[in-house]
Amino acid sequence: MTEAMKTSGVDWIGNIPSDWSLKKIRFATTIRTEVGKYTPENVFIGLENVEGSTGRLIETESEYEEGIYDVFRKGDVLFSKLRPYLEKAFISDFDGFCTGEFVIFRGFEGDKRFLFYFLLSHGFIEIVNASTYGAKMPRASWDYIKNLNVPLPCSAEQQAIAAFLYDRCGQIDVIVADLERQVEILRQYKKALITETVTKGLDKTAPMKGSGIDWIGEMPMHWEMKRLKFLGSARNGLTYAPEDVVDEDKGTLVLRSSNIQNDRLTFDDNVYVNCRIPKEIVLQENDLLICSRNGSQALIGKCALIDEKTAGQTYGAFMCVYRSRYNKFIHYVFLSDIFSYYLGTFLTSTVNQLTNLNLYNIQIPIPMDLNEQQAIVEFLDHKCAEVDDLIAEKQKAAETMRQYKKSLIYEYVTGKKRVTG
Terminus-to-terminus CA distance in the chain, angstroms? Predict the structure, then answer.
């Protein structure tokens, strides 16, 4: 039997069951602004401690100083107003302190788990995200959120919906986590394959010798250990002012760290500038673009080869380019375990920077025969493409499950589907 529906008057919510009500959030719950002094013996929650879309808390190495912070209580529902698209919300089962980037809900009219799932519904996330202000740190305001509408079934149905979504979403989260583990295993396999190949070569019968470097171990007898300063040259990138940034059709593309994803060039986050660009930092095909400065130590050393269509552009000050006739081989060396070995030798707790001097002093194993280099590159191109295809397949499956979860939550918290039995 088809359930009787009525219009909600809210575009993203659409029709709701005729026996449901619609209230502004500020009338269905209260916002808490309690503050207190945090000390290390208390629990502190930052945005980094909340796993997006699942509501699970995760441990990080973040440390917060003693001071006055927002207070939350057991049973409160917290929602991140900073970068709402990250889908960070959780229900607390303890008292604690948190950053001011959370909206703290208390005393919801019904089942707090229903409110939690409503806050994670894609329609709510999208409309809150569209309201954010601040280019670098986009955040929503409570004054906006409190006037949004929430559809409300009776308490018993809220409990049934919450229990159903908890069970079903938990199953989906397990599947997604397993797919993500598979992706990580494939990435580790790819790195191990690259490391083995760029240090041992393709001929398993070749006589070996010690390299003198721990991460390399033995290498083929005819290979050489070379410092990068003897194989090519490095250049730092362009420093530009905010007023130099222009529209795409009026300037030159400046490649940054965000333009390197999964060892390849990507163009989803581009910046263009109109200013003088020195000839020596105009990109050439087969240049090796390297992230040399970043707030995250893990991103130092990520790199990609410049292709023919990207030649003629330039790169930013937090990047460097290494130019060498051996770059196709050296690119794979950089995708090996090399930076796991070298990062600790030139990075500090305060500066995450790969200087040109650091780069030049890195030693790599290399066959100077260009034909052997080409054979290794072709072998790795083929093998890595196979692994990358498997990774893409797993990631697509995970994303499909995430989208299904979003649709599931939306359909049940807006009454498009009802829990039966």
Answer: 14
The long-range contacts involving 214-219, CB below 8 angstroms and separated by at least 24 positions, are 214/341, 215/337, 215/338, 215/340, 215/341, 216/365, 219/365
| 396 CA to centre of own chain | 16
Tell the burial category of 56 from Cβ atoms under 10 Å away from its Cβ (0-12, 13-18, 19+). Answer: exposed
**pLDDT of 319-377, one tens digit each?**
999 999 999 999 999 999 887 787 766 665 556 788 899 899 999 999 999 999 999 99
Q: Dig out the tokens for 244 from the structure.
A: 């130099």
Cα–Cα distance list, 231 to 283, 285, 324, 327 (Å): 18, 17, 6, 9
Q: How far is CA 42 from CA 36, 50, 58, 69, in A?
A: 11, 17, 16, 12
88 contacts 52 by C-beta, under 8 angstroms: yes
CA distance 131 to 116: 20
**What is the SS3 assignment for 154?**
coil
Give the pLDDT score at 170: 95
User: How far apart, in whole angstroms, are the C-alpha atoms of residue 355 and residue 182?
Assistant: 35
On whether the CB atoms of residues 291 and 352 are closer than 8 A, the answer is no
Phi and psi, residue 354, nearest 5°? -105, 100
pLDDT on residue 1: 43
Distances (CA, A) of 67 to 7, 98, 99, 101: 48, 11, 11, 16
This prediction has a pTM of 0.85
Alpha helix stretches (DSSP H) within 131-230: 142-145, 155-200
228: β partners: none
User: What are 56-91's pLDDT values in tens digits?
Assistant: 998 876 678 899 999 999 999 999 999 999 999 999
CA distance 239 to 310: 19
3 state DSSP class of 147 = coil
Distance CA 398, CA 396 (A): 5
